[in-house]
Every structure is written in structure tokens, then in C-alpha cells.
Amino acid sequence: MPDFTPAVETLFRTIAEAGGTGAQFVVAPRSRYRLEGTDYVVNRRSFYPLTEAGYVTDGGDDSAPVKVTAAGREWMRQHPVPHGGARGPYRPRGRRSVRQAAAPRPARLAHGGGFSAELVERTVAITCPDNGRGGATLPADGWEERAKDAHPTLYDIKGPFISAGYALRWREDPRTDAELLVQSLAIIRAELARHS
Fold first, then answer.
1. How far apart are CA 174 and CA 177, in angstroms?
2. Cα(114)–Cα(185) distance, rounded to whole angstroms?
């Protein structure tokens, strides 16, 4: 039994998935063929190992659909695609399924004047300007209680930290992550403006 390259095996399984009617390919530029009705393009040489082994045939007519032979079906039976295998048939591009959807990236906001903020589990970490060099200007003492009084869903403020200015923790807030980032930065900036 031959060991096919990934490109040849993908082509083979794509033809097999077409069933008894076969897969119709049309001539494409640069010695390639395109699967009719899709954007899947394959090099002509990818067909050679399959035709030489007698696994596919077009009956001697280049314009006829390519079909899997009995020998090809036997090879398929002996070489099933592992669950999650990468050498399955060609799939047209489309939306990802819910199971394959990429994990959402945490909200991040860079702001003019040296401020930056990142929200993780409804906690906004604020880095004050010049904090990386140890010269950060921080709000005056006692501002935390004023902020909590003004914003009922802001339940905890930690800091100042050396690596980040402050951590503002929000609970049961209906706003989006982006809105909480903007609100948290507005609180710190207002307190800094009041302090200076």
C-alpha cells in the first residue's frame, strides 16, 4: 500500500466523498485542476500516484468526473481518518462551528498619555503613566471610597502595585468589558486630575 503525501490523500478523500457520481474537475492555470463549484485547486501531479496505483479513474476522458475504483475503496477501508485528523476531504471555507470557535480575547485598551488597561474576569488592571520607570503619579489617598460610592458595582480596589497601578473589581455590572475599561480609566484619570 502506498504512503501518500497530505495533498494527495486530501485529494483522494475528496474524490471519495463525491460518491458514485465522481468529482468533476476543470482545468485551471499553471497545470492545476479546480474542483467544480469550489475554490479547491490541486496540482496535476497530485493525481499521478492515485491513477498509477489504480485507485481513481476518469475512464480515459480528462473532462469526465474522477471516481474511486474498487481498489481505492479498499485502501479507504484500511486507512480511516482518525478523529480530528487533518487529512480529511476538502471543505469549503465557512463559519466556524460553535465547538471550534476561537476563545474570545480579553478586552484591552491602550489610551493616550501612557495609560493602559486590561480586563480579566471583570477586574480591570490600570497601569499609570511612567509606572514602568517608577515615577508614576497616583491619585490622592481616600479616593477608593469615593469611587465605590459613585459606582455601586465597583466592589473592590487594590493597589497601588509596583507592576500595575491599581486593580478595580466589578461585580454584577451589565456593561460590556469595553465599557468597564473606559469607565475604570475615567475614574483613575479624574482622580489624578483632582490630585494634581
1. 9
2. 11
